[in-house]
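Predict the holo structure. Ligand: magnesium ion.
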Amino acid sequence: MKTEIIKISATDDSGKYEKAVELLKNNQVVGMPTETVYGLAGNAYSEEAVKRIFEAKGRPQDNPLIVHISEFSEIYDLVSEVPEIAKKLAESFWPGPLTMILHKSEKVPMCVTAGLDSVAVRCPSHTVARNLIKYSGLPIAAPSANISGKPSPTKAEHVFTDLNGKIPLVIDGGESEEGVESTVISLCGDTPKLLRPGNVTLRELESVCGEVLVDDAVLNPLKDGEKVSSPGMKYKHYSPNATVTILKGDYKLFCDYVNKNKTSDTFAMVFDGEGNDLDVEFITYGNKNDYRSLSNHLFDCLRELDALGVKQCFVRCPDETTDDLAVLNRLLRAAAFKVIDLKKVLLGLTGKTGAGKSTVSRYLKEKGAYIIDGDIVAREILVDNPELLNTLSKKFGSGILENGALNRKKLAEKAFSSPENTALLNSIMHPAINDKIQCEATEAFKTHNVVIVDAAAIIESGYADTCDKLIVVTAPEEIRKKRIMKRDAISETDAMIRINGQKKDEFYESKADYIIKNYEPFLLENELAELINNIF
Ligand code: TXA
Ligand code: MG
């Protein structure tokens, strides 16, 4: 099938619509401009037309369609009852980007509503769309005119890209003004419920309806087996071919993260005026203080990523303020809910024995950080962990166990008897410790923005690579010796044995993002000022 494109403008007369009207009356489907996004239009009363819509888009059968009308009065054919609240909403927002879900009438075929007893109705404001509906004399079922899963089309050429050869005609009515699909509100329950945010905002809905519930699926991924209010919410959506990741946090954090984690494939999508501090290529998608400017260009920019062949894209995203729900909702789906919160910082804290790590740790805890103590984790994982004890006894002999429990002294004797044995112990313990730390950190981030892992062997164990930044605490050898002699009540000889067993200063300092001198005449407060300023 050859796909034709006809340009129609708001001022053109009915003659221009003849071909499209003819096709609709014959149960064919047509690409139709609307103020939100382009729709794939078909006769809502015809099972044949509806089947064609689902086929052309590759749309899952259980995802119902919106029925479009040109005047409010046409709603009476489609629904069993028009509640007062629907009239009020129509008065305020129709014609325009609002879809209402109501109990359906007998006349609407089940294939349109995917078996539901409710129907979605919308009266678009785009003149060409309204004329097309009026001239055809039919209610028009129309989902967005993209291949299922792709970003919705906001230009005729987007429809052509997705559906060329699959449909006979696309009407080019110019670029869609709104840029995101309509707001969907269900009026079937006791309280109106927002199912899909759009450019009629939650605040605007509340001004008419009073209380409006927000469906969980608006900002959250579906849990396994969860039932959805709006079937469209459960599918991967709006996705360019690139892997999209949302980075939460301010622009500076965004740049730091992208520049640090970039590969040759990395690209960025940022707000207007941003991007010059990035070491990667980028596009901008709108003014961060104007949600309409963002929603207008969002889909176009997501499609642009495909046109540019982008493989990995980091995206700036509006906060969860009410007005920005539509953009956030679409971006979350484009990213398959992959969000990295840059305000959450994982810090590694290490240093040689006696350097004063614990003092630094206590100081940062007072500033609000959550501290994970590597020593405690190492001790804890050996309790109630038959699998780990089993591995250790296989490697070091069953003599390290006593009545099934670990005899630490015996293990230490064996493990520290040679460098090979020490390495063997570490190769068993480090991955187990790292796993436990990771679990504890994930939990801690639910309540804290900064989590610090205080561990002597954090570099050797590899966990320092997982941390965003590494803090190394230092002090001269003479001072460290005195501190550990006093702290652990040991002789100078024993203190020196411990000190000499550790790696050189350069080993720590070469990996450090922050080197903290914890000895006189340096003041800890001054030493930590930059870190506190950057992170807390
Ligand atoms: O702006 C728009 O709404 C565009 C233009 C073309 O009008 N249309 C559009 O349609 O976005 P579509 O099919 O891509 O999205 C319709 C959404 C889906 O999430 C669908 O699950 C939901 O509306 N929906 C339709 N009927 C429903 C019903 N009876 N109950 C709950 N959700 C429904
Ligand atoms: Mg859609």
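Residues 368 and 450 are 7 Å apart (CA to CA). Residues 143-144, 152 surround magnesium ion (ligand 2) (CB under 6 Å).
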